[in-house]
UniProtKB/TrEMBL annotation, chain A:
Swiss-Prot/TrEMBL keywords: Oxidoreductase
Gene name in the database record: bkdA2
Gene Ontology terms, MF aspect: branched-chain 2-oxo acid dehydrogenase activity
Cofactors (names): thiamine diphosphate
Family annotation (InterPro entries): THDP-binding, Transketo_C/PFOR_II, Transketolase-like_Pyr-bd, Transketolase_C
Domain named Transketolase-like pyrimidine-binding: residues: 20-195
SMART domains, A to Z: Transket_pyr (SM00861)
Protein's UniProt keywords contain Oxidoreductase: yes
Bilayer-crossing regions: none
Protein name: 3-methyl-2-oxobutanoate dehydrogenase (2-methylpropanoyl-transferring)
Gene Ontology biological process: branched-chain amino acid catabolic process; response to nutrient
Record-listed E.C. numbers: 1.2.4.4
UniProtKB/TrEMBL annotation, chain B:
Function: The branched-chain alpha-keto dehydrogenase complex catalyzes the overall conversion of alpha-keto acids to acyl-CoA and CO(2). It contains multiple copies of three enzymatic components: branched-chain alpha-keto acid decarboxylase (E1), lipoamide acyltransferase (E2) and lipoamide dehydrogenase (E3).
Gene name as annotated: bkdA1
Phylogenetic classification of the source organism: Bacteria, Pseudomonadati, Pseudomonadota, Alphaproteobacteria, Sphingomonadales
E.C. code: 1.2.4.4
Residue ranges constituting the Dehydrogenase E1 component domain according to the UniProt record: 93-388
Descriptive protein name: 2-oxoisovalerate dehydrogenase subunit alpha
């Protein structure tokens, strides 16, 4: 075993940082974790020699070897099932599902197995796996390269769900996810791999090189799972968002000149309820924004929680801004996407009597 | 092996350490290519069993290659389908048309006229010859690389392009990614982006046809990489259990994006050999030999039609282009591979056959190449009158909500109204129709 999973020197945290886009930050997190822990392995369709269709695993096989970074057969149930088995042995697999739209063949292994192994074996066996998967739309990918299925998994007891919105967060959260002893779904908003898309699809897009969160420490650091981040403090209303929608909300709020408090949830399960509760009690208004379809989406859970805990502080009905309850369309992508117009309209509505 | 339930701590030191095998393709970028190890049996050397032979008797046929066209362009051996020169010429033309279509649409994507395209370069014979061997009303369940079925069945190129452009003429209302056609009138099932889902569906369609006492059969296609999906194995089990009248085609074009066929099991066995374990007939065919593909499909169709059950056919071929317009094969495989492929170019081989039997010549071929290019060009001009992706959005906005259900429930009606109100608020380009 020692030959195929070589011991590597402990990489101490470095003070230096460099400009990274989200893919590079994820790559850096994987690389660092593979350096630090010989049990971390990376697997998935096209992740090995090629380095992944989004290049997130580029260079890892050359550096860490084929038995720690390898291509897999095209079977998502196989990928997750095998990862569960490797995890049971004591490894920390980080499987990639090429697009979140292709995670469904793996549902049984995720829902019935990974999520429940600890519970049903009373802790004898666990699933310390981190499933990475690009998700979300905005790239003209049609219905099979655009979906946001996080709500399916937040409904399942026993899986954590993490969604970063910046390179800085992506790296720190991914490291924490890999170190976590429970299964974590790590959904990567592919629309913002290269830059913080603000929802104005007809304007030139930025890249991360000019964004403060594109400045990423080159060494090890972690961002605790279950901690949200207030990306904009304000008193007029609370906006709960994650992934791409954090940037869209930020742009809309700036354009509308509303003093919103924008909270990037970062982890959906476990949820940072304290930050949410404190904010809504302060502002008295709550708007929830996600790209996923509306009915039964994670926004429904957030809305219920806010209503249960902050009802007597609410000054307006909670607003949910989401994708529509249709499959993700190809040509009408921007009519589907919960962009600036939809969010602005909701803002007007919730602030009407303010 | 730290924490976790690993057993490394108790490893028995007198035993050799286990090692993990990870497949590796023969050639990577920069490598000189030599396909000498690819076993190519002589054309005509493989027996042709009776279509009623028991599935248990096929073990020899799943490890060889059924080939009809020999090196001199002669059609030889028991699998020679003995087609009339006219049919062969039509097949050749369909393959040429497919190649011209792919070429033009690939370029259209590069010119920014659409978001995505996938070619079938080098594997044109697989879909085209099968379409000729099947009846017109047999039902096809393709993957995204069998546009040749539509072209061979004479489907409108303009209609296909409209879909590729997601334009005003797109019958699918711009809902699907380019090339994910759905053409019920041509016996062509709606293509899914999710791999291999069509496989059990084809079996189900065939079972339904059998249960109803119909005479039609079904055929499915998937890539060799896709055989790893659970759906493939579910399909084979059902096909075997119910002796479904279905032809299950595996297009082994050696690459699944960057993963060579070894990641689907090709280091250990052939894909046709999967049939043995399931107890269905298996054939392995030179996929660049249109006559062999025709013959194998015709054989399997007869087997299915006579209630002898399913056949799994591996088409041994090569994906000569990148996976899609999003792919750069130079990153993971040797540039030399496509030209070194020992089974050659399916169009050139069929052309040489027709010339060898005195039914074709270079001049006619060159003229035909020009003609199909013109046909595609004219179709493109026609399709572009309906718009291209990115020049405004051509679908009526409210079609976004069509087809989620047969009847729209209240929540979709509300959302549709919301979308139209947003539209009014936005002043976006497609508002100004
Ligand atoms: C369920 C699922 N998983 C992954 C993908 C992503 N994907 C699209 S095509 C492809 C490779 C398929 O290769 P193969 O089956 O050999 O067919 P080929 O492209 O060579 O024709 C992959 C991995 C997908 N579309 N669906």
């Amino acid at each position: 075993m020692s030959e195929i999973l070589p011991e590597t020197a402990e990489a101490g945290a470095e003070a230096t940082s460099s400009r990274m886009n989200m893919i590079q930050a994820i790559n850096s997190a994987l690389d660092i974790m593979m350096d630090r822990d010989p049990n971390v392995i990376v697997m998935g369709e096209d992740v090995g020699y090629f380095g992944g269709v989004f290049r997130a695993t580029a260079g890892l096989q050359a550096k860490h070897g084929k038995t720690r970074v390898f291509d897999t057969p095209i079977t998502e149930c196989g990928i997750i099932g095998v990862a569960v088995g490797m995890g049971a042995y004591g490894l920390r697999p980080v499987p990639e599902i090429q697009f979140a739209d292709y995670i469904y063949p793996a549902l049984d292994q995720l829902v019935s197995e990974a999520a429940r192994l600890r519970y049903r074996s009373a802790g004898e066996f666990t699933s310390p796996i981190t499933v990475r998967s690009p998700f979300g739309g905005g790239i003209f990918g049609g219905q099979t390269h655009s979906q946001s299925p996080e709500g399916i998994f937040t409904h399942v007891s026993g899986i954590k769900t993490v969604i970063p919105s910046t390179p800085y967060d992506a790296k720190g959260l991914l490291i924490a996810a890999i170190e976590d002893n429970d299964p974590v779904l790590f959904f990567e908003p592919k629309r913002i791999y290269n830059g913080p898309f603000d929802g104005y699809w007809d304007r030139p897009t930025q890249n991360w090189s000019k964004h403060p969160a594109g400045d990423v420490p080159t060494g090890y650091y972690r961002i605790e799972l279950g901690k949200a981040k207030v990306v904009r403090a304000g008193g007029a209303l609370t906006i709960l968002a994650y992934g791409t929608m954090v940037h869209v909300c930020t742009a809309v709020v700036a354009a509308a000149g509303v003093d919103a408090e924008i909270i990037d949830l970062r982890t959906l399960i476990p949820l940072d309820i304290e930050t949410i509760e404190a904010s809504v009690k302060k502002t008295g208004r709550c708007m929830i924004v996600h790209e996923a379809t509306r009915t039964g989406g994670f926004g429904a859970e957030l809305s219920a929680l806010v209503q249960e805990r902050c009802f007597y502080h609410l000054e307006a009905p909670i607003e949910r801004v989401t994708g529509f309850d249709t499959p993700y369309p190809h040509s009408l992508e921007w009519a589907y996407f919960p962009g600036p117009v939809r969010i602005t309209e909701a803002l007007k509505k919730i602030m009407k009597d303010a | 092996m730290s924490n976790g339930s690993g057993t490394n701590g108790s490893a028995r030191t007198n035993l050799p350490p286990l090692t993990l095998h990870v497949p590796e393709p023969k050639f990577r970028p920069g490598d000189a290519v030599d396909f000498a190890e690819v076993d190519v049996p002589a054309a005509g050397s493989v027996r042709r069993p009776d279509t009623a032979e028991a599935a248990s008797g096929f073990t020899d046929l799943v490890y060889t290659l059924i080939r009809v066209l020999d090196d001199d362009g002669k059609a030889v051996g028991p699998w020679n389908p003995r087609l009339s020169p006219d049919v062969v010429r039509r097949m050749l033309r369909s393959m040429a048309l497919l190649r011209a279509f792919d070429d033009r649409m690939f370029r259209a994507q590069r010119q920014g006229k659409t978001s995505f395209y996938m070619k079938a370069l080098g594997e044109e014979a697989v879909a085209v010859a099968a379409a000729y061997a099947l009846d017109h009303d047999d039902m096809c369940f393709p993957s995204y690389r069998q546009q040749g079925l539509l072209i061979a069945r004479g489907w409108s190129l303009v209609d296909m392009m409209n879909q590729i452009y997601s334009n005003r003429g797109d019958r699918l209302q711009g809902k699907q990614l380019p090339i994910m056609y759905s053409v019920k009138d041509a016996g062509f099932f709606s293509i899914s982006g999710n791999l291999t889902t069509q496989y059990p569906q084809a079996v189900g369609w065939a079972m339904a046809s059998a249960a109803k006492g119909d005479t039609r059969i079904a055929a499915a296609w998937c890539g060799e990489g896709s055989t790893a999906e659970g759906d493939f194995h579910a399909a084979c089990t059902f096909a075997s259990v119910y002796r479904a009248p279905v032809i299950l085609n595996i297009v082994n074009n050696q690459w699944a994006i960057s993963s060579f066929s070894g990641f689907a099991g090709a280091e250990a066995t052939t894909f046709a050999a999967r049939a043995v374990g399931y107890g269905i007939a298996g054939l392995r065919v030179d996929g660049n030999d249109a006559l062999a593909v025709y013959a194998a499909t015709e054989w399997a169709a007869e087997r299915a039609r006579t209630n002898q059950g399913s056949t799994l056919i591996e088409h041994f071929t090569y994906r000569a282009e990148g996976h899609s317009t999003s792919d750069d094969p130079g990153q993971y495989r040797s540039e030399g591979e496509p030209n070194a492929w020992p089974l050659g170019d399916p169009i050139r081989r069929l052309k040489e056959h027709l010339i060898a039997i005195g039914e074709w010549d270079e001049e006619r071929h060159a003229a035909q190449d020009k003609e199909v290019a013109e046909e595609v060009k004219a179709a493109q001009k026609e399709a572009e009158k309906n718009g291209i992706l990115g020049h405004g959005l051509h679908q009526p906005l409210d079609t976004l909500f069509d087809g989620v259900f047969e009847e729209m429930p209240w929540h979709l009606r509300e959302q549709q109204a919301q979308m139209l109100a947003e539209e009014t608020a936005s002043g976006r380009p497609w508002d100004k129709k």
